[in-house]
Design a protein that fits this description.
- By secondary structure, the protein is an alpha/beta fold.
- It is 38% helix and 24% strand.
- It is built from 14 helices and 18 strands.
- It has helices at 3-17, 26-36, 55-67, 82-90, 106-117, 134-143, 170-173, 183-194, 210-215, 241-253, 262-267, 312-327, 340-346, 359-368, and strands at 40-45, 71-76, 95-97, 121-125, 147-152, 159-160, 163-164, 167-169, 180-181, 199-204, 223-226, 231-235, 272-277, 280-290, 295-303, 331-336, 350-352, 373-378.
- Strands 3-4-2-1-5-10-11-8 form an eight-stranded mixed β-sheet, with helices on both faces.
- Helix 1 (3-17) packs antiparallel against helix 3 (55-67).
- The longest helix is centred in the last third of the chain and has 16 residues, at 312-327.
- The chain is elongated.
Amino acid sequence: MTALSSAFKLSVHSLTTLPPNKSTNVRSVLEYVPYFRGKIFAVHVEQPLVNSEELVDALLDLDALQEIGVKPVLIAEGPDAYALYEHTRVCEMRSALVEAPLKGGQLVRERVREILGRHQIPVVASGRTGSFDTDSIHLAYTLGASKYIALLNDHKVPSRDGHPIAAILESEVAGLSGNLAHRELLDQAAEACRAGIPRVHLLDGKMRGVLVEELFSEEGVGTMVHTDSYREIRPLKEEDIPELLSMIARSVVDSKLVDRNYEDIAAKIDDYYVLTLDDSIVGCVAVYPYPEHRSAELGCLYIKHRHEGRGYGRTLCEFARKKAEEMGVDFIFALSQSAVHYFRDRMHYAEFSRDSLPPERLRALELSGRKSGVFGLRLKDNN
């Protein structure tokens, strides 16, 4: 089965099992396929879930994940993995039972490696209670798992003051305050991160489609505790240019952004930055320097439609301002005819006359025929 058909299988299955307000389509799934391919996911199943009807959905999605290149490892809580193994057989998964529990030591871990090496899903018992026993964590670490996924019973996903905690850095867990639900799970997940696992997911194992919604959407539906950078702003790479062009195309057509082609961006690639969530690009900004005039332009500001309203535009504007300060310029400006309220009322940029622009930028603006206003900040006044 191809990655495309497997992704389609994943998304179709999730659409038929998720609540009406949740959906993950094949397009969003495909964005993650290259990133997940070849990665090991250790999936720990709490004992009460093993015989639950909802677990079947998770197993079917794990089967499809394997088909797109993910290498799942199933860990059953407790002394016996046979019941979980039988469920994988009913789901026609390419699985194999590890006869001894993980507390058996190195030989058991080698057996898990052997099964993974022949492209099957190992099903192994932890031999202990809890979702974060030391043997399960050690197995995930020694395998080089990129994710440890705890499928929890009884809706035990952490929250603060009644609001779900979607993602949190391991280093921030200890300092959390407020009314925390299931704090002990957060602490255990943070400890697993410190043991060398990059990302730990705490998921409601009885929520249908939970694996797809957590893994194939940037915001997720559970709690992710992580040590690596989940959200970052990084320089644009040449291989990112086609995605950037497709991302901003709607605003170019609507005349909200200046039209750019591949060569335009490649020629100034050092001026462009992208905002990523879980390594997926969701926004961009450019900072064009005019050092002779001690100015810099904030341009090509864009956030993907489904990520609007989450403060990412402000994050990119603040990043651009800091970049301009690092350049040693005195003035950062943006040109816009469609985002006047955003720059003026939300970012508190002042409105300036066109005469405040560097002469070469003023000439280019006049030649374009665009009726953009000039909005800017005097950086020395903001230091």
